[in-house]
Amino acid sequence: MVNLNSDRGQSEALFKRASRVIPGGVDSPVRAFRTVGGSPPFIERGEGCRVWDRDGNSYIDYIGSWGPLILGHAHPSVVQRLQEAAALGFSFGLPSRLEGELAEAIIGRFPSVEKIRFVNSGTEAAMSAIRLARAFTGRDKVIKFAGCYHGHADSFLAAAGSGAATFGLPDSPGVTVGAARDTLIARFNDLDSAQNLFSQEVTRYASINKKDGVAAVIVEPVAGNMGVIPPEEGFLEGLRALCSKQGSLLIFDEVITGFRVAKGGAQELFGIRPDMTLFGKIIGGGLPVGAFGGRAEVMNLLAPEGPVYQAGTLSGNPLAMTAGLATLAGLDVAAYKTLEAAGASLQQGLEQALKDFEIQGVVQRVGSMLTLFFTDSPVRHFDDAARVDHRRFAEFHRRMLERGVLLPPSGYEAWFISIAHDEEAVEKTIAAAREALKEL
Ligand code: PMP
After folding, report:
1. How is domain 76-329 classified at the CATH fold level?
2. I need a labelling partner for 145 at 20 to 30 A (CA). Which of 47, 80, 334, 346 fits?
């Protein structure tokens, strides 16, 4: 395979220029290539499973806008519906029928969600859901799991995954002591660690002051922000039982997994009914969106129905709703079969390559989300994810990029497959990986 993508001069110049006016040259830290070295390609356009940078290099893309593009870039039906919708106006600040249609489409596939509200990002969804959980329970504390990422609101920048883990900033300066104190950290796939927090908090303080109790346990049901880590048997079931017993709300952050790991998300796949669910990414098809939903008695506390304030100028934006509806329309039974087949063959090809070149590596996958960890044993939680060979990943990443395969620029991230990743793309990816691994 030829070395296609060594010239990125124009991207480098654009990056330098952007760095003068935008901190770090990027609008989201994960886009910087600091931990894998070099500077990011500046993307001009995308089509199907490929993107093209400013220098004309093309890449098979496994970032997929970090998850939303499950139909691939610029899917013709999404483009067409967006063009039609744009011609009718972009935003009204008044309700449109599209919001109700997308709400029904989501609720129809997620029986635990009786009511839903749209926002503009996953961060907003998580932040609003926690406010609601606190109001509903009258308690302040929230349990999250180390390495899970729920956006960048203060409550969640404690032992956070994704870019926060990549850059060694799991607990950001600027978060108040009060906010940090209300977030308790447990270990993913370790039910006892969550149980222990409950007994500490509840027995020590909550009997005196109800506010010290645990309002909610929030979890990515399949972790995607410390690389892909599936829940072990009994973990999610255990959290469900624990929350029910303690009167705390179980919040599934399905911003990544919603409509990706199954039509009804991880809650369908694992048969768990959370009290609240967070959405983002796929439900906006690549336009800015987020949503939170759940039991009606909880959701009805939201203004104007109830006293919990939450609002947004662009929430339920007609273009975002349109892209979401068009994307969900493309996700039929056949689509999930295609995604599973592509995921399975990529996993198998990578595992074979690791074996052939005697490189320690583990591929973890749920459907169309996958991570190759350079380690010799399964990754079960953040401590394991932190221990994998991230330097080796950086080497691998660079070699893949040169060969026209764009992986997320961090060993703490999921690779996203779309229905546009056809056999040829997967085969090319495996061929590139074989060459890259051989060189390590
Ligand atoms: N939750 C999860 C599970 C996520 O992966 C992300 C973003 N990667 C968020 C929340 C935050 O979403 P956003 O970037 O849209 O604010």
Report:
1. Aspartate Aminotransferase; domain 2 (3.40.640)
2. 346
Task: Break the chain into its structural domains and give their ranges.
Answer: 9-62+332-439, 76-329
Task: Mention every residue, 6+ apart, whose C-beta is less than 8 A from residue 280.
Answer: 68, 121, 122, 125, 255, 258, 289, 290, 291
The reply to whether ligand 1 has any atom less than 6 angstroms from the CB of 371 is no
pLDDT in tens, 416-432: 999 999 999 999 999 99
Homologous superfamily assigned to 9-62+332-439: Aspartate Aminotransferase, domain 1 (3.90.1150.10)
Pocket test for ligand 1, best of 220, 256, 314, 366 (most atoms within 8 A of CB): 256
Question: Is the entire prediction scored with pTM above 0.85?
Answer: yes
Write down the pLDDT at residue 2: 47
Element (H, E) at 337: helix 333-356
Dump pLDDT digits (tens) for 308-363.
999 999 999 999 999 999 999 999 999 999 999 999 999 999 999 999 999 999 99
